[in-house]
Each structure stands twice: as C-alpha cells, then as structure tokens.
Amino acid sequence: MSNPNKEVISVLNDLIETSKDGQKGFQTCAEDIKNAELKALFVKHAQECGEAAAELQREVRALGGDPEDSTSVAGDLHRRWVDVKSLFTGKDEEAVLNEAERGEDHAIKAYKEALAKPLPANIYAIVERQFHGVQRNHDQVKALRNIARAS
Question: InterPro entries annotated for this entry (predicted)?
Fold first, then answer.
C-alpha cells in the first residue's frame, strides 16, 4: 500500500537534509573561527538548524514516513571543498562568513522550492516559519560578512 503523503514526505525529507547541512555547516564555521562572538553565533545557528530538522522529522513520522537523518551528498562535497580551499586561503573571518552565506543561499532556495509545492496548511505554516529563520540567518551572516570585508 502506498502512502498518499509521499510527495509531502519527500519535500520534508529534502528540507531535513538542508537543515542537517546547515547544522553541520555552522558547526564547521564555529570550529574554524577564532572570534568568540562569531563562534557563539555559529553554534546558535547550528542548534537552530538541528531543531528545525527535528521538527520536520516529527512531521514526516506523523505522515507515516521515514524521516531523513543525514546530510546531503552536495552538502558533504561543499564542506570538503571548503576544507581544501581553506588550506590555501586560510580561515579568516571573511572567508568563513562567505561560506556560511553560500550555505544559507542554498537553504533559501530549498525552502522557496518547498513553499511552491502543494503542502497541507499545517506543514506549509511550519515550512514558512522555518524559511523566515533561514532568511534571518542569511541576512545576519551577510551583514557580518560585509563588515568583515570592509575591515
């Protein structure tokens, strides 16, 4: 018997991967940066991404699906590329913030795509709320990157 919620579960599992990518990406940024305030900010954003993934996993279970529990291959490849790149460029604040912003650009795109799909109202509300959090993280990281660039 097939699950009538298959499409919604697929959309949510894609967002779970995106959130897990964000969690791992912000953890990596926190490890790579010396500035204590930025480190604390990245740890906070990693925690928020983890909470978003957990919320979406609960929804997938409620819909009768198996929630994703890993990061995406693309996210893993991006982090490895960042690690290799940082060997050559160093891990200065601007470089770390650039990569954090690039990750949030991907998350914004994924959430916008999800919001364009037909989702039940309760799921749409969760995805929309999380999208605003992603947008807020992106804008904050971008502003900090612009400050670092001007320094």
Answer: CHP02284 (IPR011971), DUF2383 (IPR019052), Ferritin-like (IPR012347), Ferritin-like_SF (IPR009078), UCP029477 (IPR016920)
3-state secondary structure 47-103: HHHHHHHHHHHHHHHHCCCCCCCCCCHHHHHHHHHHHHHHHHHCCCHHHHHHHHHHH
Distance from C-alpha of 43 to C-alpha of 41, rounded to nearest angstrom: 5
Q: What DSSP character marks residue 116?
A: T
Check the CA dihedral 102-25-142-150 and report its sign: negative
Q: Tell me the C-alpha distance between 3 and 33, whole Å.
A: 45
Q: What is the pLDDT of residues 24-66, one digit of tens each?
A: 888 888 887 888 998 999 999 999 999 999 999 999 999 999 9
Where along the chain do its domains lie? Answer: 6-150
